[in-house]
Amino acid sequence: MRLADKVAIITGADSGIGQATAAACAEAGADVAITYQTDEDGARETAARIEAAGRRVVVCRTDITDAGSIEALFAATRDGLGVPDVFVANAGRGMSGMAVAEMEEARAMEILRTDLVGPLLCARAFVQARKAAGGGGRLVFIGSVAGHLPTPESAPYGMAKAGVNSLVRSLSREVAADRINVNAVAPGLIATPMTQKRLDDPDARKAAMKNIPWGRPGAPEEIAGLALFLASDAADYVTGQTFVMDGGLTMNWGGA
């Protein structure tokens, strides 16, 4: 799977899945624009990995919930690398411990803006850029198994991820004539900074593993490999799909 001389944008690439995906795209031959919100050091580490692969990189601090910030990202990418061929919408925010009856409106809206509205705004900008360039391109969302499973005490997060799955289906139909592929990856429990606290707690880790037939968390590089496939020409006949990668979690939910 090659992305020779393509231009890719990866949001939330300062750590975890985003960082691994940015590195994978660079190793496959792409120049890469990466975004971060607060972890500049992590973004610089990702940039160093891209440059070590012999590719060019643009680093942008981006708020994906703000259309103006997204426009600035695309402008910086065009100026520094060229029109993007690939967009991986990875940036997001997790949550837990908030039942609907005790819902804090501000916190719920923050999750919905970041995990649903943000990807939608990014998708709009990418589709506009690709249409202006004559079509073609690959749009990959990093969602979650939460889009398929019940998410007690984190309903806004599950709503957002289910909404991304719906966006994938709808948008794939809208842009098929432009030959823009739209797909998503829905990871299960992946060993990233977002989940590290749970994985470091022996009791919490043991409880989580009971629900995963494969008996381990996934690695960011495994998700990156699937995202790279969907971003490549090898996936030209794939669109409108969400691919679950979870070690069997969704097949075992509630049955362990």
Q: Your description of this structure?
A:
With 256 residues, the protein is α/β, with parallel strands linked by helices. It has one domain: 3-Layer(aba) Sandwich (Rossmann fold), CATH 3.40.50. It is built from nine helices and seven strands; from the N terminus they run E-H-E-H-E-H-E-H-E-H-E-H-H-H-E-H. It has a seven-stranded parallel beta sheet, sandwiched between helices. Helix 1 (16-27) runs parallel beside helix 2, helix 3 (67-80) packs parallel to helix 4 and helix 4 (105-132) runs parallel beside helix 5 (155-174). The protein is globular, with a radius of gyration of 17 Å. It starts with 6 loop residues before the first strand and ends with a helix. 46% of the residues are buried. The mean pLDDT is 95.
Helices and strands in order:
Layout: E1 7-10, H1 16-27, E2 31-36, H2 40-52, E3 57-61, H3 67-80, E4 86-89, H4 105-132, E5 138-142, H5 155-174, E6 181-187, H6 196-200, H7 202-209, H8 220-231, E7 241-245, H9 249-252
Parallel strand pairs: 1-2, 1-4, 2-3, 4-5, 5-6, 6-7
Task: Provide tags for this entry.
7-stranded parallel beta sheet, 45% helix, Rossmann fold, single chain, 7 strands, 9 helices, globular
Q: What's the short story on this structure?
A:
This protein is α/β, with parallel strands linked by helices and 256 residues long.
Q: Find the count of extended strands (DSSP E, 2+ residues).
A: 7
Shape annotation: globular
Total domains: 1
Helical proportion, percent range: 40-55%
Rg, nearest Å: 17 Å
Report on the biggest sheet. 7 strands, parallel
Secondary-structure element series? EHEHEHEHEHEHHHEH
Q: How do the strands of the widest beta sheet line up side by side?
A: 3-2-1-4-5-6-7
Query: And the CATH topology?
Result: Rossmann fold
**Class computed from helices, strands and strand pairing:** alpha/beta
